[in-house]
UniProtKB/TrEMBL annotation:
Organism field: Lasiosphaeria hispida
BP-aspect Gene Ontology terms: proton motive force-driven ATP synthesis
Pfam families: ATP19
Recorded superkingdom: Eukaryota
Protein name as it appears in the record: Uncharacterized protein
Assigned keywords, A-Z: Membrane, Mitochondrion, Transmembrane, Transmembrane helix
The organism's taxonomic lineage, starting at the top: Eukaryota, Fungi, Dikarya, Ascomycota, Pezizomycotina
TM regions (residue ranges): 12-32, 65-86
Length: 127
């Protein structure tokens, strides 16, 4: 049996109220979502002539074709700009993985912290 509520003199089951509430919420969200508004894939071309606009369109198509051939996406083009913003010293050093042992060997303070952490873990597992 389900719980019933007396609404305007009629008995209404709680499951009907739940369905009404969910329908109202999702229906309102769907109504105000406005459907699909198409966002242009590329920014507008600010070309001074139609020849320049055609050249830019062909260049972008060729660039996309080359990226597709290489298995890359357009987002890869942004990576050099981000890397160029980094200081030269940071770019010149090769990347290396920071393992706990490597960092501890370079810093005695971190070696002490790692030793205390290991002791704490061992004591918490023993007790």
């Amino acid at each position: 049996m389900t719980a019933t509520y007396n609404i305007f003199g009629a008995k209404v089951g709680s499951h009907y109220l739940a369905m009404l509430t969910l329908g109202t919420i999702f229906g309102t969200a769907y109504t105000f979502s406005g459907g699909s508004s198409k966002i242009p894939a590329t920014p507008p071309l600010n070309a001074s002539s139609s020849d320049e606009a055609d050249f830019i369109k062909k260049f972008l198509e060729n660039a996309e074709a080359v990226l597709a051939f290489l298995g890359l996406t357009s987002a890869v083009l942004a990576a050099p700009a981000i890397e160029a913003a980094a200081p030269v010293e940071a770019r010149a050093q090769p990347r290396r993985e920071f393992k706990r042992e490597t960092v501890a060997a370079e810093s005695p303070e971190l070696a002490q912290v790692n030793a205390r952490e290991s002791e704490f873990i061992a004591s918490s597992q023993a007790g």
